[in-house]
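Quick review question:
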C-alpha cells in the first residue's frame, strides 16, 4: 500500500518517460484529467495520477487503491497501491486484454495470451530491456505473468461496491472492467445461511437471538427458502410465530408457505392464528385452508403461493428483495450500486417498463420505487434521476402533478432551487390545464395540501438563500394555490403560510 515507485517516477524524468513509453503509464497526462467529470458512487476522493494513449485514466482512491477508467465507460481497480498498479502495467503491458482471464484458465492459456500480445508489441517497439531497467530502478521483483493475472483479477473483483465510478453529470455508472463477481444474493444471504446452520444444530442461543432479531429472522427464512430440509419444520414454526411481530411481511407469508408445504394438518391452528394477527395479515394470508382441511389441501395452498411468489432459485427473486436485505444489514454501498445499475438499465432501455399484457403502456412504479429507495439511502442525486424520468413518463394530469411535486421536493432538499421552481411551475400548469378530469377534486384532497405546502417550503428556502425576488414571486403563487383549497384542506397549511410570509418580509 505504498507509492514509493510513484515518487521515483516523479523525481526521475528518465524513469517517467520509460513508464509512459512503452508501458503507457504517463504522468503528464494527469494534468489533462479524464475525458469527462467522474465521481465515486461511495463519495470518496479521487486523485488523477496518470493516463494512457487511449484516453484512459489512473486514479488513486482514499485507501490508496488505483482505479483505472477507460474512455469507453468501463472502470475497475487494478492494484491496492500505485506500486502494485505499476508492477502490473510494466509486467503485463497488454493487461487490458487480460481482464477476463483468471488463474482457473491455467498456466498454458495465460502464457499463450501474454506471449501473443507481447510479440505483437515487439513488432513495433522494444519492451524487454525497458522492462528490466524499470523493474530494477523501482525495486520490483520479476513476477510471472500467471501471478500478475491472478493479482489483476483479485483487484478487479474488489471494484464493487466501494469503487464504482459514475459520470458526474448524468449519475450513470461505468461498466465493470473484467469479472462481475458474485451475484448480490450471495453476500446478502451469507449471514442467514450461517444462522440457519446454527438453528439446525440445535444451538439454543441462536434459536432465541435469531427469533428476536427482525433482520436475522428475515434472512434465516430466506436462507430456508433456498435450502429446504425435511427436518426444518419445528424451526420454521418458531420463526413464523415470531415474524407476526412485524405484521404482514413477505417473510411472514414465506414462513407460512414453508410450514404449509410440510402438509401437517396439526399446523392449521397456528397458521390460522397467524392469519388473524391483524387486518394486514388477514388480507395477506387470504385463501388459507380452514380448520378441518386435509393435508393435500394445505399443501396445495402452500404450493400455489410458493410457485407464484417464492420458489427455490435466488436468481428469480426481484432485485428489491436483495437490496432491501442488504440495506437492512448495513451493506449500504452494495445496495446503492445495485440500484444504480438497475436504474441505468431502465434509462437505457425503457421497454423494460412495458406491461406484459399491454405492451403499449408502461408500468412506471419501479422508477418511483427506486427514487424512494435512493432517498432512504440518502442519495439524492440518484433519487432525482429516478424521479425525473418517472415524472416525464406520467400520462394523467394527476400523476404528472403528483410526480412533479415530489420532484420539486427532492430538488429543494438537494439545494437545486432553480430546478425546483421549474418543477412547481409544471405542477401549476397541470392544475390549470389538466387535459383530463383526474384533477377535478384536487382542491379538496391531500394532493392540493401537499402542493401548497411545497410552494411555501420552497419559498422559505429561496428566502434563506437570499433570492428575495424569486421568493416573493413564489409566495404569490403559493397564496393562489392556497386560496383554491377547501377549508378542510387549507387548515393545516395556514400556519406555514403565515410563517413564510413573515420570513419573506424579513428578508425584504
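Suggested answer, residue by residue:
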Amino acid at each position: 500500500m505504498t507509492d514509493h515507485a510513484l515518487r521515483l517516477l516523479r523525481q526521475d524524468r528518465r524513469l517517467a518517460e520509460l513508464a509512459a513509453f512503452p508501458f503507457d503509464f504517463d504522468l503528464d497526462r494527469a494534468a489533462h484529467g479524464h475525458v469527462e467529470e467522474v465521481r465515486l458512487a461511495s463519495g470518496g476522493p479521487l486523485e488523477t495520477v496518470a493516463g494512457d494513449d487511449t484516453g484512459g485514466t489512473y486514479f488513486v482512491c482514499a485507501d490508496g487503491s488505483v482505479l483505472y477508467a477507460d474512455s469507453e465507460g468501463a472502470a475497475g481497480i487494478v492494484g491496492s497501491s500505485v506500486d502494485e498498479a505499476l508492477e502490473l502495467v510494466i509486467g503485463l503491458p497488454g493487461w487490458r486484454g487480460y481482464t477476463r482471464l483468471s488463474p482457473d484458465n491455467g498456466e498454458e492459456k495465460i502464457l499463450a495470451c501474454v506471449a501473443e500480445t507481447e510479440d505483437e508489441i515487439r513488432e513495433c517497439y522494444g519492451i524487454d530491456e525497458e522492462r528490466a531497467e524499470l523493474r530494477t530502478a523501482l525495486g520490483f521483483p520479476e513476477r510471472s505473468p500467471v501471478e500478475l493475472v491472478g493479482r489483476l483479477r483479485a483487484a478487479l473483483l474488489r471494484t464493487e461496491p466501494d469503487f464504482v465510478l459514475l459520470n458526474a453529470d448524468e449519475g450513470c455508472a461505468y461498466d465493470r472492467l473484467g469479472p462481475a463477481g458474485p451475484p448480490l444474493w450471495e453476500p446478502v444471504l451469507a449471514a442467514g445461511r450461517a444462522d440457519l446452520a446454527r438453528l439446525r444444530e440445535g444451538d439454543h442461543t441462536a434459536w432465541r437471538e435469531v427469533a428476536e432479531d427482525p433482520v436475522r429472522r428475515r434472512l434465516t427464512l430466506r436462507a430456508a427458502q433456498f435450502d429446504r430440509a425435511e427436518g426444518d419444520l419445528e424451526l420454521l414454526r418458531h420463526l413464523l410465530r415470531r415474524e407476526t411481530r412485524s405484521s404482514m411481511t413477505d417473510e411472514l407469508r414465506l414462513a407460512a408457505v414453508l410450514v404449509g408445504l410440510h402438509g401437517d394438518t396439526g399446523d392449521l391452528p397456528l397458521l390460522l392464528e397467524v392469519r388473524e394477527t391483524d387486518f394486514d395479515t388477514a388480507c395477506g394470508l387470504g385463501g388459507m385452508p380452514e380448520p378441518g382441511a386435509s393435508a393435500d389441501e394445505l399443501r396445495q395452498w402452500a404450493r400455489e403461493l410458493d410457485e407464484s411468489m417464492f420458489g427455490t432459485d435466488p436468481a428469480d427473486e426481484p432485485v428489491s428483495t436483495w437490496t432491501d436485505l442488504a440495506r437492512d444489514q448495513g451493506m449500504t454501498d452494495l445496495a446503492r450500486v445495485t440500484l444504480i445499475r438497475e436504474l441505468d438499465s431502465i434509462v437505457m432501455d425503457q421497454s423494460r417498463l412495458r406491461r406484459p399484457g399491454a405492451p403499449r403502456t408502461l408500468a412506471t412504479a419501479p422508477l418511483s420505487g427506486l427514487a424512494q429507495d435512493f432517498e432512504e439511502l440518502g442519495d439524492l442525486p440518484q433519487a432525482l434521476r429516478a424521479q425525473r424520468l418517472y415524472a416525464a413518463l406520467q400520462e394523467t394530469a394527476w400523476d404528472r402533478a403528483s410526480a412533479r411535486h415530489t420532484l420539486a421536493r427532492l430538488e429543494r432538499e438537494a439545494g437545486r432551487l432553480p430546478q425546483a421552481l421549474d418543477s412547481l411551475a409544471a405542477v401549476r400548469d397541470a392544475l390549470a390545464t389538466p387535459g383530463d378530469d383526474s384533477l377535478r377534486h384536487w382542491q379538496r384532497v391531500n394532493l392540493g395540501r401537499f402542493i401548497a405546502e411545497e410552494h411555501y417550503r420552497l419559498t422559505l428556502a429561496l428566502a434563506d438563500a437570499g433570492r428575495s425576488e424569486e421568493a416573493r414571486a413564489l409566495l404569490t403563487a403559493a397564496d393562489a394555490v392556497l386560496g383554491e383549497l377547501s377549508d378542510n384542506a387549507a387548515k393545516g397549511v395556514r400556519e406555514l403560510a403565515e410563517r413564510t410570509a413573515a420570513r419573506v418580509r424579513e428578508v425584504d
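Why it works: The chain has 24 helices and nine strands. Residues 90 and 131 are 6 Å apart (CA to CA).
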